[in-house]
Amino acid sequence: MSLAIVYSRATNGIDAPLVTVETHLSNGMANFNIVGLPEKAVKESKDRVRSALMNTQFEFPVRRITINLAPADLPKEGGRYDLSIALGILAASEQIPQDVLEKYEFIGELALSGELRPVRGILPLVLGAYRSGRQLIVPQANAQEAALVQQANVLSAKHLLEVCAHLRGEQALPACVSDAPKQAAVPLLDLADVKGQPVAKRALAIAAAGQHSLLFIGPPGTGKTMLASRLPGILPELNDHEALEAAAIASVSGVGFDPVQWKQIPFRAPHHTGSSAALVGGGRPPRPGEISLAHRGVLFLDELPEFHRHVLESLREPLESGSVTISRAAFQTCFPAHFQFIAAMNPCPCGFAGSNKNACRCMPDQVTRYLGKISGPLLDRIDMHVEVARITQAELATCGKEINESSVAVREKIIAARQLQHARQGKCNAALTVPELDSVATLAREAVSLLQQVMKKFNYSARVYHRMIKVARTIADLDGEKAVTAAHCSEALGYRSLDRLRKSIYGQ
Predict the structure, then answer these.
(1) Going by C-beta distance under 8 Å and a sequence separation of 6 or more, which residues neighbour residue 395?
(2) CA distances (Å), origin 393, targets 200, 216, 279, 452
(3) CA 197-202-205 angle, 5° bins
């Protein structure tokens, strides 16, 4: 009898729990069994492994072979265990040395010829191997992505024979080296392309400086989508830790992560026909949805009322908690979701409610139903509602690209405001808790009186009250002032256009 132990890793959300591949050869009728809660693709690996070993001139043992993937209660999926299973059989049959296996972890799917094929979700696996202190061997097709974790020691191989030669000490495998750019490319979309709309541009800068959620409201063709799509161009670039988090989520998704996109701010803009599962995530095995794919970036929902109400309601918890938990009968997975929420909508189905230039064709009950698709609790979680009015032909003809409106100029102000916030409280203003807010945003007496009057008039909740103070704190940071004055609060109150629109249209 012979026993060999090889290490590999599974995927559970963006975590990569260790899997011990135990291989036992015993006498008896020739058989090949895989146990340890494998799904169908894992069970089929025995045919891939058998053909790969025979086609690479190794001896396939004609004995009873038992493969145990421990822990037994952790579901195993995909072809990522092929390489570990093949090496376990070779080590148990004494065709490669066993004593060196404990230093490595192995990931890779085998072709029938013995070539190594890439697997999904490589970044969490690299991070897990790095924390365990072992070297990881991956397929060469995954080398660029694996090399993004610069502190990890990762080797790459094209073929099973190369891995065996390395373990025998005959020829060392090359280390993974990344060719990805160290910094993201400068975004092509410039804020100066948006003509006019100084109020909306100011609101976008405030939202970027404090990481506030923002809703643009206005008739069709006023530039709401143009403004939202230029938000990544004025945001500070991701640091290495944030970029690695965003890349890890993309790595475990069905699409995968392209190393060329390293340090690029995620910008997700799902269509309004998408389901709640597409937005939140799901499936078996669970994969991240648009909310998690926007982690450390921007989630933009255009035509907000056209989304199904239950889809919009799924945003409420992630906006508060910064994470998404997918719970099913057989499993529970948590994905991070720290994103900046931006949305755009028309004021009514035809788009011209409240306009003095175009007549609205909607009946009052149509407008009520249209605005009612966005619930009060969701609106409470959106910090700023900004009206984007239609500009005249004369304004459109005279507006040019002003240098102080470019994304580069605006980004410098936002970086300065972010640095001020992180030096003061270690986070952006939008993430402040109520006790933290009380300590960093002490209001003047005039500001308190102003907020109380508005709270009474519009019947705002305590959540809206605190969010308005956070916006006022960000405005003060952009202006370089330590105190939050009545002027800052007054500007913050001006960014609640939807509340005034609801009251003017149907008296709410």
Answers:
(1) 195, 196
(2) 18, 21, 39, 40
(3) 125
